[in-house]
Amino acid sequence: xCRALFLAALAFLHIGCAASPPESxxxxxxxxxxxxxxxxxxDPGGGYDSYGRLVSQYLGRYLGVDRVVVKNxxxxxxxxxxxxxxxxxxxxxxxxxxxxxxxYAQLLKRDGLRADLRRMxxxxxxxxxxxxxxxxxxxxxRSLDEMRAAQRPLLLGVNGAGNEGYYDxxxxxxxxxxxxxxxxxxxxxxxxxxMMRGEIEGRFSSASTARTFVAxxxxxxxxxxxxxxxxxxxxxxxxxxxxxSKSVALVEIVRSVAMLARWTAGPPGIPxxxxxxxxxxxxxxxxxxxxxxxxxxxxxxxxxxxxxTLASAIERSMAVSPETVALIASLAGAExxx
Length: 338
Prior knowledge:
alpha/beta; D-Maltodextrin-Binding Protein, domain 2; 2 domains; 43% helix; three-stranded antiparallel sheet
C-alpha cells in the first residue's frame, strides 16, 4: 500500500505516506508528525526535480514526518531557490536541492546570491556522475579532432548563464580548444529536440541525461569528464585534450563539481542532534529497495555521500586559486565584485 501511494505521489507536490521509525531521543521524536518543506530550485521536470521528489519522499518516510511538501522555486540559475533554503528557519523542517552551478556563483561573487555554501547544513547527496559532450548525429562529427577541425564556433545548447551546464560548457570548451557559441534557454529536452532537428550541434550534460538519446541513435558521446554511471570507458576523457596546466585545472574543477551533484542541504544553524538524525535517515533512505527501483526506472543513478563527507568536499571545491577564479570569470563573462 505504501509503495503504491509513493508511486502516485510522484505526480503531486506532497506525500501522505510515512513510516513510523523507532524513536531514539528528542531529536528523532521532533520530526514525528511534522510537515517538511523540500525546495527544488528549478522548474518541475528535469533531473533535479526528479531527484528532489524521489529522495525527499523517502527521507520523510524514515524521519516519520506526516508529509513532505515539494516546492519548486526557480529563477536566477537556482539562486532564488538556494536563497530561500538558506534563509529558512533552521529547525530541520526545510531542506532543498539546487544545482552545483551555485559553487561557481559563489566563487564569482555573483550579485543576488546571499547563501554561503560553507555555512549550510549538508544532509548528503544522491547523485554525481560523469559529464559528457554529446553531438547530434546530424552534425556528422565523430571525434573532438573533427569538431576542432571545423574551425568555426559550434552551436551548443545551454539553459542559462547561471547554471552548471553553462559553466561546464565554457570551462571545458576553453580547456580542450573547442570554439562554440552558446544557445541559451534550452534545457535537456529542448536541446535534444533541437539536435534532432539539426538546429544545434551538441550539449554538455550529465551522462544519464544523454544516455537514452545516444542509445536511440540521435547522438554520439564525444568526450567525458569522469568515470562510472554506465559511461563507456572507451569515450576519451577531456583531460587528455587539455591545452595547458591551467586547462587541466579547469577540467579538474568540472570533474569535482560533477561528482557532487543532486545534494540535499538545509539552512545554517540546524541543531547538531537534528542534523545527525537527518543525515542518518538520508543515508538509510538511499538504500531503500523501493527508492533504488524507482531510480532505476527513472534512469537516475544513485551515488550516495553522507553529509559530513559532503561538507568537507564543498570546502575543497571552494579552495580555488584567485588566478583560476579570474579565468573562470573571464570565460563566463561574469563580473566580480570585491
